[in-house]
């Protein structure tokens, strides 16, 4: 895979990978904390860093059918959540291009 180059966020409140503590998102990028993932509560973000995408797959979620990619930490390869690629219902379109990170898969830094 070669050398891993991480992006370090400079915000006051940062979410990190719970396994290796690589920065994943700034608190300012939180859209909602009212989501649920495979392991419980999850947050919806506009932007995340230090992740790579898995293959696209159709997944039937609580709010209907979506095309998503799992997102993995670039440092430890832990699955952190997923990226919404396509929402098939009009009321769910706001999620497209946004990211879910499961609360269980992240820690907080600088809080």
TrEMBL record:
Source organism, top-level taxon: Eukaryota
Matching Pfam families: Yippee-Mis18 (PF03226)
Family: Belongs to the yippee family.
Lineage: Eukaryota, Viridiplantae, Streptophyta, Embryophyta, Tracheophyta
PANTHER family xref list: PROTEIN YIPPEE-LIKE CG15309-RELATED
All copies of domain Yippee, residue ranges: 13-110
Keyword presence, Metal-binding: yes
Keywords: Metal-binding, Zinc
Gene Ontology molecular function terms on file: metal ion binding
Name of the protein described by the UniProt record: Protein yippee-like
